Amino acid sequence: MTGKQSVVRFSVSLPPSLMREFDEVWKSMGYKSRSKAAHDAFRSLISEFKWMRKKAEKIIGAIVLLYYVDMPSLLDQIMHVQHRFEDVICSSMHVHLTQDKCLEIIAVKGDAQEIKQLTQELMIKKGVKQLKFAAMAP
Length: 138
Ligand code: NI
What we know:
Layout: H1 16-29, H2 34-53, E1 58-68, H3 74-84, E2 89-96, E3 101-111, H4 112-123, E4 128-136
Antiparallel strand pairs: 1-3, 1-4, 2-3
The protein binds nickel (II) ion.
């Protein structure tokens, strides 16, 4: 095995507005080169795709959930869902954001179908403002 992997160069056709937006984003994020930013964007798309396609495979990631605490019984419901999926939940963190909003970060590991089911059950609850799942490609 040699140390460093070789690279492939190729050309991509994009609308100028998308390229401008991409350049603005990676520069403001602190990337030093477009290649490194594109590399990470590719990696992120692949992770996302693998997660969507996976059936019975194992995945790891985190569910980030923003919800209103003043919705009747929502807190209880969110807790009960998490108890039912305890075999795929490694850990969770609750942050009291404002008077009426909470953020929950749930680290998950295990069966992709089960994790998908968990995110869907949380997502559809009334009072859940936003849910994101960050899948990592192990
Ligand atoms: Ni809270």
